[in-house]
Design brief:
Layout lengths: L10 H14 L1 H10 L11 H9 L5 H13 L5 H14 L4 H11 L5 H4 L4 H8 L7 H12 L10 H10 L8 H8 L6 H19 L3
């Protein structure tokens, strides 16, 4: 039987993971000198946080923040409110047509969010991916930042791939399978490694003018 692994609950957990990474991989020690302490980045578990992750798919941070603000102002935080708003209400809040479909599908999905906490990462991700509009990236981000699993990692994230390319001086950006293979060496703190690479990406982006 697989164990569920450690849950990140506070900044102390993140710091412990960062210290382990720095001792295990010298390039993480260098990274942490550049970034300073890593953020906790935990979100509440449940429908609204998962909906916000869906909203963030393939849009800029600024655009996602603007849409989330409009949805909050419209009271679109609960399944019942999303269903009542319907397509017109969700479009008025700024959602694209595909994301309107995804939001309504999520509202009807009857996910047992408490039950997800009792599942392995793989099982929780598989359950979430049953919902239209939720792929591996969305499910992995939820497992990391809402459930708080310490050993989850989204290798398909382009920011993580670019940060790993620069940090490890790779000739090209690693593919999702290649980054997943690299991340095996960062277990059992892959979620903290992701936080570190996200933080490093912001530095790289400012330094090199990446889009």
């Amino acid at each position: 039987m697989k164990t569920l692994g450690r849950i990140i609950k506070n900044p102390i957990d993140v710091r412990q993971g960062a210290e382990w990474l720095a001792k295990t991989e010298p390039r993480f020690a260098y990274l942490l000198e550049q970034t300073g302490p890593l953020p906790l980045r935990l979100k509440p578990q449940g429908f609204n946080s998962l909906l916000e992750i869906i909203v963030s798919q393939q849009v800029s941070v600024a655009s996602a923040d603007a849409i989330r603000k409009r949805m909050l102002e419209a009271g679109l935080k609960y399944e019942s409110a999303v269903r009542a708003a319907g397509e017109d209400g969700l479009r008025a809040a700024g959602l694209s047509r595909p994301k309107v479909r995804y939001a309504l599908a999520l509202a009807d999905a009857e996910i047992d969010y408490s039950g997800l906490r009792q599942m392995t990462n793989e099982a929780a991700i598989a359950r979430l991916c049953e919902v239209p509009g939720i792929g591996p990236w969305t499910a992995q981000i939820y497992v990391m930042f809402c459930i708080g699993r310490a050993d989850a990692f989204p290798p398909g994230d382009l920011a993580l791939q670019e940060a790993a390319k620069v940090l490890f001086d790779l000739p090209s950006r690693p593919t999702a399978p290649e980054l997943a293979e690299m991340a095996q060496g960062w277990s059992p703190w892959r979620s903290v490694a992701a936080r570190a690479l996200f933080a490093y990406y912001r530095i790289v982006k400012q330094r090199e003018g990446l889009g």
